[in-house]
Amino acid sequence: MEIEVKLRLQNQETHKTLKTLLNPHHTKTHNQHNHFFDTVSNHLSTHRAVLRLRLYTNPPPSKPTCILSLKSKPILQNGVSRVQEDEEEIDPDEAQRVLSDPTRLRTHLGSSRIMTRVKNEYLGGNDDVGQFVCLGGFKNLRNVYEWKDLVLEVDETSYEFGTLYEVECESVEPEKAKGLIEGFLKENGVEYEYSVMSKFAIFRSGKLP
Fold first, then answer.
1. Which of 69, 46, 45, 47 is nearest to 56 (CA)?
2. Cβ-based burial of 187 (10 A; exposed 0-12, middle 13-18, buried ≥19)
3. CB-count exposure of residue 143 (10 Å: 0-12, 13-18, 19+)
4. Helix (H, G, I), strand (E, B) or coil at 42
5. What number of CA atoms fall less than 13 Å from residue 52's CA on the CB side?
6. Rounded to an integer, what distance in angstroms lies between the CA atom of residue 206 and that of residue 52?
């Protein structure tokens, strides 16, 4: 279970202000490209599951360059997101081949842990069900900060229809973390609101909330 505090920042200026305030605590920056997949018959979307391929174009040495993930059973309430998440590193060259030909995902139904889960949990255990397609995706520039024993991720997410600015924080004590972050934002006049949709849900809706 991934539990995150998710707060939406008002605009680009607010985003810039927060980055300036947190700059002494900056540890790294990730340039992420997110791509999403489903079958032609929407086997995953029908069950509110998300299959994502994330590529890092400038990863630090300790970070894998390509991650395949499966998210399911999402709940987002009062700025706290809870979702079942499974991640698996995959070969970057194979990731590029999958992006060129999404049907290649079927060849991994028995070898990849996540794709085996997809087959068993969403395709009825049948290798021949559905053709995989790419739904598209978006870019995300993530600045990471270590602040008050928390890891804050300040995101600039670029969609074709606009840009979203958020601050996220994964924590086993989300209400405590949310209180600390909200106090800091209010103290410094940084306008925010609780996120009401996941980045993927916004992408599928085609407009900013």
1. 69
2. exposed
3. buried
4. coil
5. 24
6. 18
Token pair of 8 as six digits: 């939406």
113, containing H or E segment: helix 113-122
Helix count and strand count (H, E) for the chain: 5, 9
Q: What element of type H or E holds 37?
A: strand 26-39
CA distances from 79 to 52, 153, 177 (A): 22, 14, 11
User: What is the SS3 assignment for 111?
Assistant: coil
Q: How many residues belong to the chain? A: 209
Residue with tokens 């607010």: 14
**Residue in the structure block whose two tokens are 């086993």:** 172
Please state the φ and ψ torsions of residue 123, each to the nearest 5 degrees.
-110, 10
At 131 the pLDDT is 87
In the numeric block, which tokens belong to residue 112?
A: 């990849």
Torsion of Cα atoms, 156 then 159 then 30 then 72, to 10°: 100
pLDDT digits (tens, 9 = 90+) for 44-87: 999 999 999 999 887 656 666 899 999 999 999 999 999 999 99
Token pair listed for 115: 């794709």
